Amino acid sequence: MLLLQYQEKLYMEWLQTVSEKSQYNLNQPLIRRDPESRQIAVNFNPQLVSVLREVKYLGTDEFGNIPETAAAIYSSRESFRQLVANLELMVTWYNKILGTVLEVEYPLVQSQLQAIDIQLREAEETLNWKTEGLWDRVSRVVDSVRDLEQRIQKTKDNIEEIQNIMKSWVFPVFERKDGKKESLLYLDERHERLDRHYRLITDSGHKIHFLIKENLRLFVADPASDVWNAYLEHVDEMVLDGFFNVIECSLKYLLENTDPKAGLAPLFKVQLDLSVPEMVFHPSLDAGASDSFYDLVEALVNDIFRVSSLMPRLVDHSAFPHYQADMEEMADLADMRHTLMDRMQKMISVCSDYRSSFDHYSYLYVDDKKEFLRQFLLYGHVLTPEEIELHAENDTPESPPTLQQFKEQIDSYEKIYMEVSLLEPVRIFDSWMNVDARPFKASLLGIIKKWSFMLKQHLIDHVTHSLADLEEFIKVAERGLSKEAEKGDYEALVEIMGHLLAVKDRQTSTDEMFEPLKQTIELLKVYEQELPLEAYRQLEQQKHEHFLGFESCQTLGRRRPACAEQCTGIVSQPHILTSGM
Questions:
Q1: C-alpha span between 137 and 141 (Å, rounded)
Q2: Which terminus of the chain is less hemmed in, N or C, by CB atoms within 10 Å?
Q3: Neighbouring-strand partners of residue 282
Q4: Does residue 106 contact residue 148 with C-beta atoms inside 8 Å?
């Protein structure tokens, strides 16, 4: 009973206020605006929402009739719902425009916003929730706000696409092969890689220009107006930032990978080779040389900067047709470029010093081997400038080298050979430069071998020629001594006597030659130099030191009677002896 009384009391209080509150709220304008932020809001009072909810809950008339005003509001609830929903969307779009439009964009849409504000003024001041044909009167402004918001959003989407396009450019133009940390900078397909990168930026540049033209249409702007040029300069600055990031990325990659403190694997490699009479690097480290290492790196840097020349400027009034001039003038990029090239120059000095450390071997590939051998065979050494000056007027006294001097000279080359063979084939400087000295080392070792072999070959030739000469002498002597001298054949007898005299003259030198030859052969064996088999045969055949003397004595013994008989005749006819000799 008490509960019913309480309910009836509340119902009567609601009846007394609902009509008045509803009438008041229905007479309010559709839109209200914040004077400071200029943002708007739907002015549908929550009390009206409460009335709709309360009438719905009351349902059938349990306590009495529902007031006419409340009933009318409830009967139009679907119209109010649709109207409020559309107005809420419009308000969201409008406030989004005000909240997101950039300072540089606002002048482009200012007149369009002002036109919308004129349309909104009616909803803010004269139109209320009881106005007849309300939707027809507000739909135009709703459409206008939606259209402007969509166009502005599309321009922002285009700008975002431009930024994403430029982000796709940001990767090192040149990097290690296959991205492996231990690989060198990959330049084998340098031009192909550049072409792909340049084509990407060129095509992207066309796309960016297309998107900007679309924004011109979306803003309904005059391309010759100051506000549009200001907008272009704004986007132009974005493109400048984009190219800055592209170039910075590639320069930073090179700097990071040539930082000695980073401790990374070598990025560059040069080969040290021997191109007589010079030690040369490939690529060259010499200033002014074509295709030098410094020029190569500088060309890579130029290639990196050149990406900014592939897209025409967005602003027509710029003094430059593209962006490279601006990039060249940016202090940060210029500092990075200077730091990188300074590292290259210092590394060239380090590598040049390394090359100079081998200068003391230069005589091996600069001096004339034939002239050295000539002087060595004559004097036992190469004449010094002082000796040449001392004997300028008279011939330098000859002093042929001993076998020991040959050994000492050959040993000196063998020592140098071992010394060079122990040289490091590869040197790493500052962790990022690989100097491959293997070609130089191999060439130098080959040259040292030639010097050593030149002396060894001379000894081999000396042995073989000596033995061959002796063998030939023996054959000639044997043929001469084997002839029979007939009685009265003075010419044959003179020839035989000549052979006997030659054998006698050579006996001493022949006796003395075998021991030095044996010593020479033993020395050659130390250096693993084998004589021709023919030389060993000759040496074995002639190993009896008195072979010539013994044979000649036998021959003389056989011929003694004939010689004694005919000697008188020869002496009495000296012209025969003279002509025979």
A1: 8
A2: N
A3: 271
A4: no
CB 377 within 8 A of CB 400: yes
Q: Which amino acid is at 558?
A: R
Tell me the CA distances in angstroms from 187 to 49, 73, 422, 439, 518, one per residue in order.
Answer: 73, 79, 32, 21, 60
Q: Report the distance separating Cα 436 and Cα 283, nearest Å.
A: 11
* pLDDT higher at 213 or 580: 213
pLDDT band at 59 (very low <50, low <70, confident <90, very high): low
What is the rounded distance in angstroms from the CA atom of residue 431 to the CA atom of residue 263?
A: 6
Tokens of 105: 């964009």
% helix, strand, coil for the chain, step of 5 = 70, 5, 25
Identify whether the C-beta of residue 21 lies closer than 8 Å to the C-beta of residue 47.
Answer: yes
Residue 74 CB: number of other CB atoms within 10 A? 17
Q: Bridge-partner residues for 433, per DSSP?
A: 268, 429
Residue 14 structure tokens: 């609601």
Asked if 45 and 22 count as a contact pair (C-beta separation under 8 A), the reply is no
Q: In 480-546, where do the E strands start and end?
A: none
**What is the rounded distance in angstroms from the CA atom of residue 396 to the CA atom of residue 376?**
13
DSSP-derived secondary structure letter, 262:
G
CA atoms lying within 13 Å on the CB side of residue 443: 19
pLDDT band of 77, cuts 50, 70, 90: low
Q: Is 297 exposed, middle or buried (CB count within 10 Å of its CB: 0-12, 13-18, 19+)?
A: buried
CB 322 within 8 A of CB 313: yes
Asked if omega into 283 is within 30° of 0 (cis), the reply is yes
Instruction: From 473, 484, 428, 156, select the one nearest 265 (Cα to Cα).
Output: 428
Q: Are 40 and 91 in contact (CB under 8 A)?
A: yes
Of 178, 41, 233, nearest to 120 by C-alpha is 41
109/228 Cα distance (integer angstroms): 11
The tokens describing 320, both together, are 């430059």
Three-class DSSP labels, 120-179 = HHHHHHCCECCCCCHHHHHHHHHHHHHHHHHHHHHHHHHHHHHHHHHHCCCCCCCCEHHH
* Four-CA torsion 302, 307, 308, 309, nearest 10 degrees: 90
Residue 181: strand, helix, or coil: coil
Count of Cβ atoms closer than 10 Å to residue 280 Cβ: 17
> What's the rounded Cα separation, in Å, for the pair 495 and 510?
21
406-429 residue pLDDT tens: 999 999 999 999 999 999 999 999
Confidence of residue 85 (pLDDT cuts 50, 70, 90): confident
pLDDT tens digits, one per residue of 541-561: 666 544 544 455 445 545 545
Tokens of 242: 């984009």
What gap in Å lies between CA 341 and CA 347, rounded to an integer?
10
- The tokens for 492 are 């044959």
Which whole-number Å values give the CA distances from 16 to 45, 50, 63, 147, 481, in the listed order?
19, 15, 14, 45, 169
What confidence tens digit (pLDDT) does each residue in 354-408 have? 999 999 999 999 999 999 999 999 998 888 888 877 776 567 788 899 999 999 9
pLDDT at 191 over 80: yes
**Residue 503 CB neighbour total at 10 angstroms:** 23
The single residue listed with the structure tokens 């130098």 is 444
